[in-house]
């Protein structure tokens, strides 16, 4: 009986060791690189893990790399969007947004899916430019260079910042969201204008009550009263307007200027993105 208990104990210890080792291997993958199609070597996966983890730390954005040879009957866009949501990246409380870089061997398409703040950075034109960078590599079956190139090109646009003319168009509703941000010079102009206006009002008030044109001076220090109320102004980065626009069924994400096209995924998330067949 004692011997059986010892054997059972050893089995439990071995099981726990294997479980811990497996969890460590999963954690070391960074959980942002998913080579489900087996297109990458171990060294290439390790390099992408390090790259995406570094970028996540720097930008507070998710950089999810995925390959698949079974899209489960979905389009490349649907698969990329659902993958991002199903793996918890969409509702990640630490990240401000992110992108999925997909090689879909089932649909023979490379695709970039963007979410939250990444939509503002990656306009349609920028996504097309990233796809231009990656396309020669995917055609040559250089899968690592394709994925790494997409991530690197996206990083360059992150460093450039959100385009000054950026706006988002929901292709399903026609809603337009314009991204507005104040530059340092805008703050200087706003504060300067406020000071000039305040000075003008103050000067007018003092001049009015001193009655410089008469002999009588109003005792404004004794009879004047100023009531201050606490008020907070909250600046928002977006102004939303609506108008009807023709729907674009092309999943390639084409469009000019600073436009970012968005759509709603099957899981209810809002995504941008674009892809290209190979």
From TrEMBL:
Gly residues biased stretches: 266-278
TM segment ranges: 187-206
Signal peptide: 1-27
Region (Disordered), start-end ranges: 243-278
Keyword vocabulary terms for this entry: Membrane, Signal, Transmembrane, Transmembrane helix
Pfam family, one: TPM_phosphatase
Domain TPM intervals: 33-156
Domain of life: Bacteria
Gene3D superfamilies noted in UniProt: 3.10.310.50
UniProt protein name: TPM domain-containing protein
